[in-house]
Amino acid sequence: MKKQIKITSTISCIIMLSLAFSIGLNAYANATSSTEAPPLLTNSFASEKVEATNDLLSASTVVTATTSTVHSNADCGQGAHNWGPVEPWKPAPELFPLIWMVYCQNDGCNAETRRHHLPQEAILESIQVTTLPTKVSYFVNEPLNIDGLVVTGTYSDGTTKSENIALTNISGFNSAAANPALTVTVTVGGKTATFTTEIKEVVLESISVTAQPTKMSYTEGETLNLSGLTVTLIYNNGSTIPVAFANFAANGLTVSPANGTTLTTAHNGTPVTVTYTAGGKTSTTGNLTVTANGTPITSLRIDALSITTMARYEARRFSVILNDGASDENVVWTISDLSLGYVDPVGNVTIFDRTGNVRLTATDPVSGISHSITLRITA
Questions:
Q1: Is the pTM above the cut of 0.70?
Q2: How many folded domains does the chain comprise?
Q3: 270 - beta bridge partners?
């Protein structure tokens, strides 16, 4: 009977110890996910409580060996048993703790150590930027864009994987000022990697007249009115700013001829030039039309033979024949060879001390109509 009781007690001890060992392992595994000390375990054989380990995650923690106190007892259920590591160890990178295994024999309780592998998650050892972001060149005040960025992590078990990167992982980006080589840092799990970006100054590249003045046709004596004129500023970052004429001065734009200029026929067929003074950029309007006062010229002819003879040192005034009502006030006179003679603005020709042929021309600057004759200079 006594032998049967011992065998039964032994089986019961083994079952209880197996359950306690399972509880211990679970508690130990849970402890590895926290830097706090693990909970106390309750010995299955007695009400006495013992600690499983110290701080399992701290690389500086060394758990020293403990001594097992085993009371031999035929009953095997009344002894006090310590649970815990039995040799010094450091938990990195994988933990192989030594845990007491208490078991029973017919003549009492004994203790032995068993090594158990508790697998741990691989530890991130380094990160590397393996693909740069699609965009690495920025203009001043442009926000960061990490599309296309690939960061690869290398782990303690030799594996690699692409890390999930968000803007919260990025530091060092500042586009407030130009910088040809700005270092941007990526941080994942305390590990860092860097890549370089460029921050460029925003500068004006060109200007363009995008809306003509409302009034483009004038009669001589009217004043230039540039209302409706719009110029667009074009920058190197692709941005554009339309500027109405009323805001030209505030944006550093000037015009020639100036707004309010009294127009003459000399302005006919010429544009208004807009200049961005800081950068020397220019753009022009379409050509103005300026008509002389009175009846416009529709026909014009110099009142002389097509070949007219003149002597050296001779002076003569030429005139034009125009259509009825037209004025010759703005007719322009020219001579083809200034070494032979000279013509003034009203058609007075003076021949020099030379012989030869020269062309005399009269032109209406508004209509563009002109007429020429040949002057044959003799001795």
A1: no
A2: 4
A3: none
